[in-house]
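Sequence only, no structure available. Ideas?
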Amino acid sequence: MQSNSPLPGRVAAARLERANAGLLRRVKTARRFADRRLQTAQGELIDFASNDYLGLSQEHTVVEAMVAAAREYGSGAGAAHLLGGHHPLHQQLSEQLADWLGRDKVLLFATGYMANLGTIAGLLERGDICIQDKLNHASLIDAARLSGAELKRYPHADLAAAERRLAQSEGRVSMLITDGVFSMDGDVAPLTDLAKLCQRYGSVLMVDDAHGLGVCGEQGRGSCADLSSQQLPLLMGTLGKAFGQSGAFVAADGHWIDHLTQSARPFVYSTAPPPPVAAANLAALAIIRDQPQRRQRLQDNIAHFRRLATQVGIELQDVHGPIQPLMIGDASQALKLATRLGDAGFYVPAIRPPTVPAGSARLRVTLSAAHSRQQIEALLGALETVHAH
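Reply:
I predicted one. Tokens follow.
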């Protein structure tokens, strides 16, 4: 019997609309190698899309730590953290992350998305205020909506607008939430000033430092390294970017973590991450903490890319991290340029709405400590050719 539901028609219309606007996205199957090669259906490409900023996903000691843990403990946790799935490796990772960041406690989650959903929806409720930068990650926006709190957004990195939102929210429970390093623009939020505003207006600051952790700050402690727990009560970090593995955490004083252990639904009701992943993250943390030369190599590669781009007349944004957006504007044009780069042997994805605002489609070049100078120089040669045509 044919369904009378209008939903299939809506789905078909939405797909057609996306396709006509050059916004239809597809899953790419790819195999990554240690030297930044990527095997895809398009052939072998040099990967300039990965968030594995330090190359740790392919680091021998990290891989061996995971393999050894899998042999000893098996491949899965077997239960939620609160039901016996919290392995000694999870506890060790929590304690070492807290010590590294100078925080009281850490709560582990399977992904950054789950960490944000669990934390924000576990703390805020209907009648509260959630103030956010307009370019925050989608998980932060979704979490605010899920919590039932009133969501108020301010123009990107606009301190005066953020203060107006805070002033309007005085007398009510509020949180101000921002990315530390913005995932599509690569710039850093004005964290010290935001912390001062939150203290002035009695709001709680939370930072999602997914793209800063491991990359910047002393010992790789991220964009929030200079903020105390009083200035920044809630810090979210992911283990799938610079750590090169998977997972996430929230770092905070004990009373926050104790509350979230009860109220963060993605933590309470999800199977704990596999213990071998915790072992790999412990090995990655040791490298991030003790090998500053990896971050220096990354910074050298960023400087080399920016220097060469300037020489060949490619306009860059004023950002100095591994995320280097090349602004195109039109989504279809960005897709064409990405395809041409693929034909030339480079994977540089086109980032299109709704991931970025309408009219701001771009190529997103992501640099790693594992890139060679020769790979960066070859990419710039290809970019110069593609831009010329």
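The chain has a mean pLDDT of 95.
Hope that gets you unstuck.
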